[in-house]
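Project outcomes to date are best conveyed with an example. Our students and postdoctoral researchers have been running inverse folding experiments weekly, and each run begins with a structure described purely in tokens. The record below, which covers 147 residues, was selected by the lab manager from last quarter's runs and is presented without edits.
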């Protein structure tokens, strides 16, 4: 289907400390998002929040090419959320993420917009891991960095 590699997903293959995946790096921490079985290939996503400079930001995770893929839930055309209904990000074939507002079409592997008004720009991806049957996203609390 798609041979691109998601570097962030490869973290799941390494050994990990008990209870969560291997450390994502200084200043980052893992946040559990959902059970792995919740995410079906090309199916509905799970929405969650991550900390941001101006307050919490919306994000989501979906499964594609057998791996979880996480992005900020913000279109690159206009900063609105993508989903058609809460958690519905994919097109009818489950192959592309589509913005409900004007139809920008994104590759679910790397978030690159392949068609639409923001062609060539990419969704902001988040490091994601699957560990012990759960999906984790690495978050960095940017609000604390400004203090
Ligand atoms: S706001 Fe997403 S395509 Fe226009």
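After processing, the design step wrote out the following sequence:
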């Amino acid at each position: 289907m798609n041979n691109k590699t998601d570097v962030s997903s490869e973290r799941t293959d390494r050994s990990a400390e008990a209870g969560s995946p291997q450390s994502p790096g200084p200043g980052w921490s893992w946040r559990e998002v959902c059970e792995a079985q919740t995410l079906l290939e090309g199916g509905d996503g799970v929405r969650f929040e991550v900390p941001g400079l101006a307050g919490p930001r919306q994000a989501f995770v979906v499964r594609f090419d057998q791996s979880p893929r996480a992005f900020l839930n913000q279109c690159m055309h206009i900063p609105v959320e993508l989903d058609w209904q809460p958690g519905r990000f994919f097109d009818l074939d489950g192959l592309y993420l589509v913005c409900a507002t004007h139809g920008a079409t994104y590759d679910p592997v790397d978030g690159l917009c392949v068609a639409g008004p923001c062609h060539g720009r990419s969704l902001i991806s988040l490091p994601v891991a699957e560990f012990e049957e759960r999906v984790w996203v690495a978050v960095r609390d940017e609000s604390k960095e400004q203090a």
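Residues 142-145 form the longest helix (4 residues). The CA atoms of residues 50 and 57 lie 5 Å apart. The training component of this project remains on track.
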